[in-house]
Amino acid sequence: MQLENMDLIIYAGDYTDCQTVERLQDRGRFAGVWGNGDPDDIRALLPEKTILPLGPYRMGIFHGHGTSGSTPQRAYDMFKEDAVDMIVFGHSHQPAIFTKKGVLMLNPGSPTNKRQERWFSYILLELAGSRMEARLIMTENPPKCQEPATS
Questions:
Q1: To the nearest 5 percent, what fractions of the chain are helix, strand and coil?
Q2: Rounded distance, CA 125 to CA 123, Å?
Q3: Ranges for the Calcineurin-like phosphoesterase domain (predicted)?
């Protein structure tokens, strides 16, 4: 996975330490929210939810934590009044791409902590005009991120 080739890195929480957030921020364009596993210092750096304009689209980002309903339902409910086109969420570490009432729901799973899943995973999302392509990438081993080239 070559993060320097990405226009945007989106992370839906549970970083566990500030160094991870700082490394992602240092790589360039980054959007993220805190998760229920994050300590207070990370919660001070990042919002619980955010809405990101991406060209003609609006993306909601929320970890998915809570006590009522399923993780996808909590993520959907968090943006019910916000007119978003897609929602990135996590919490369950169960990768999924589906639609719910006209909203594209994206759970990348986890590239670092697969929990009970068989594979490590992440999503590549490409937006080009009115075209959207979401690809779920699954791998037996955690993806290795290549460091940006230095001059």
A1: 15, 30, 50
A2: 6
A3: 3-128
Q: How many residues does the chain have?
A: 151
Strands (E), 29-151: 30-32, 49-54, 57-62, 86-88, 96-100, 103-107, 120-128, 131-139
- Digits of tens for pLDDT over the chain (151 positions)? 556 678 899 999 998 889 989 988 888 789 999 999 999 999 999 999 999 999 999 999 999 999 999 999 999 999 999 999 999 999 998 999 999 999 999 999 988 888 888 899 999 999 988 889 999 999 988 877 655 544 4
Task: Give residues with Cβ within 8 angstroms of 45, minimum separation 6.
Answer: 18, 21, 34
User: Which domains are seen in the chain, by residue range?
Assistant: 3-139 (3.60.21.10)
Question: Are 135 and 127 a contacting pair, CB within 8 Å?
Answer: no
- How many CB atoms within 10 Å of residue 115? 9
Residues 126, 132 contacting (CB under 8 angstroms): yes
Lookup result for tokens 């970083």 = 15
Place of tokens 């719910």: 100
Q: What is the pTM of this model?
A: 0.89
